[in-house]
Amino acid sequence: MPDTVPPRRTDSGEQRPDPAKAEPPKPEPFRCDGVAAAAPDLLPLGQSPAPVDLGRYLDAAATSPPAAEVFAAMAAQAGAAWANPSSLHGPGLAAAELLERSRIRVAANLGAEPSQLIFCSGGSEAIHLALLGSAALLQPGRLLVSAVEHPATLAAAAQLQRQGWQVEMLPVNRLGLVDPQLLAERLVPPTRLVSLIWGQSEVGTLQPLASLGALCRNAGVRLHVDAVQVVGHLPLNLAQLPVDLLSCTAHKLQGPRGVGVLALAPGLALAPLIGGGSQEGGRRGGTEPVLLAHGFATALDLATARLTAAAGQDPVAELRDELWQRLCRLEGLRLSGPSLGGTGQRLPHHLSLLVSSDDGRPLPGRALVRALARRGWAVSSGSACSSAVSTARAGGAGAGAVPAGGASPILLAMGYSEVEASSGLRLSLGPWLKPEDLEPFPADLDRARRELQAALA
Predict the structure, then answer these.
(1) Which pLDDT score is estimated for 200?
(2) Are the C-beta atoms of 388 and 373 separated by less than 8 Å?
(3) What pLDDT does 44 receive?
(4) Is 408 helix (H, G, I), strand (E, B) or coil?
(5) Using omega within 30 degrees of 0 as the cis cutoff, is the peptide bond preceding 190 cis?
(6) Could you give the C-alpha distances from 193 to 162, 179, 246, in angstroms and in order?
(7) What is the DSSP track for 71-91?
(8) How many CB atoms lie within 10 A of CB 295?
(9) For every residue of 237-286, which 3-state class applies, written as one string?
(10) Do the beta carbons of residue 116 and residue 261 sit within 8 Å?
(11) Mean pLDDT, 10 residues at a time, over the chain (457 residues)?
(12) What's the pLDDT at 374?
């Protein structure tokens, strides 16, 4: 039998290429806010990527590089805690013990009891479990969200809207802050749920959680808080916060991807989204990721130790402030969101900028991100990269598409024009950075800005 199959012939006698030998079709380029971009090259199987220069990685708000201690802790337990923690034999009990020890450590760092925590796959699942799991036990009513929420919250809100809930969006001011008086006015029937992002990932705004939470508690309305950007950067004691549900994730604080936590107030009832098992107290079915939970606990231990050593202040804030002092001297840069310093209204590791030409014309943030990437810097433009993201933004009553042209819905909600809202640049720092790492950045940013200005002239 021959080793090859002869070419197939059509009815007209023409040879047709053998499908087995045909080159696979090239993948379609992915799209970022409707703009085509080249598909990334894939590495051959088994080949390691080039090492990343973490001294130029300024995108912690997107994700952070896992700490070496996290990798080491997970590797040390990989051979012992691989079994299903629900199994009753020796290997299963070893896994269950590590899982519960990790839960105890995470709870201690959050100021909660271990029984209050539900391990899940990350912040997005935690947010959905908080809102949909709460709504399942309530009569349909009104859900209040801010105009600067994460897309995961808006997606969950849209799902509740399809189930008969009213979704109302609370406007924010130029700093991205919710008006407490307006919130208080809306905490009347039929309002039954409120969801607020504590630390806004794009502009760094910190909502005054204690006062907003007190309003919800006094009104008897359940409050969920998205603390994904806050945990690890601010001291947190759930026992002292007027919060019913709080979601967070490991990969924003140098932990592993794929694990998050939803923390519940004591005695709070919640319907599971994932059934089929009695894991997590019957509140989230599925075999728990034991090693990921152990990595989460280790990362949170490290973050808490840094905060404790610095009297409750994130030491990265000093690095951030020094960087801003150099950047604010450059042409074409201005701060968006709250000011730095002692106001307590901005995430301590976060800078958000609006970039313009020398004559004040806003420059596209995404193009600047690419220009900086060519110089080895990893930053963000602040607008989400997706082909079609629907949200419940428009008027708080229905799904509205993300604006075309890269305009940030967050900046639009804060009152910026569409061209200004396309010029955002986000820098988010982490403890792997040193002052000398950031020394070249202002000059590189200035050169990239001037090159883009010339190209668009």
Answers:
(1) 98
(2) no
(3) 72
(4) coil
(5) yes
(6) 16, 17, 13
(7) HHHHHHHHTTS-S-TT--SHH
(8) 30
(9) CHHHCCCCEEEEECHHHCCCCCCEEEEECCCCCCCCCCCCCCHHHHCCCC
(10) no
(11) 39 43 41 38 66 91 97 97 96 98 98 98 98 97 98 98 98 98 98 98 97 98 98 96 98 98 97 94 96 98 97 96 97 95 88 96 96 96 46 37 70 97 97 98 98 93
(12) 96
Contact criterion met (CB below 8 Å) for 339 and 18: no
Tokens 């760094």 belong to 204
Q: What one-letter code names the amino acid at 329? A: R
Distances (CA, A) of 63 to 36, 254, 319, 376, 442: 24, 8, 19, 17, 22
Place of tokens 């933004």: 393
Tokens standing for residue 94: 């070893």
Residue 62, both tokens: 């997107």
Annotate 128-195 with DSSP letters as a single string.
Answer: HHHHHHHHTTS-S-EEEEETT--HHHHHHHHHHHHTT-EEEEEPB-TTS-B-HHHHHHH-STTEEEEE
Phi, psi of 410 (to 5 degrees): -65, -50
Structure token pair of residue 392: 């419940």
Catalytic positions are 385
The predicted structure's pLDDT at residue 15: 46
Query: In which element (H, E) is residue 350 found?
Result: strand 350-355
In the chain, % helix, strand, coil (3-state, to 5) comes to 35, 15, 45
pLDDT recorded at residue 341: 77
List domains and CATH numbers for the chain.
68-307 (3.40.640.10), 316-456 (3.90.1150.10)
